[in-house]
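Form 7-S
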Amino acid sequence: MQFSINMLQRTLEKPGPPMERLSFLISKILENRQGFLEVFRLSTQNKKRPEVLDQLFIKQQEIFQNVLRQLIVEGQAAGEIVEGDPEQLMIAITASLDGLSKFALGNPEKFEKLFPDASIILRMLKP
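Output:
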């Protein structure tokens, strides 16, 4: 989880246009999703977990949403990302990634073959 948090923070510091950094972020998330499926499973279970783990899940999600939102705003200012409410766009991307993760957990045999390329998700943001 700490690796994920560090990667999110490095994405904001990375040079380049906002859409390029957003593409990097989404690609890394999709590439690493298989490795983090157990963490994702833990984060979505309703079982009692240690509070420190819950706080890490919350922190990671907040950082991801903040980074995603900031890249969307920067991309809109640069004309690289479709106009619209950055909060709604961030939620649409987050929900897509969460849904893909749930699909991967429920269909592990189809995961490798059917998991989409980052460009498919990024099309939602193109003007």
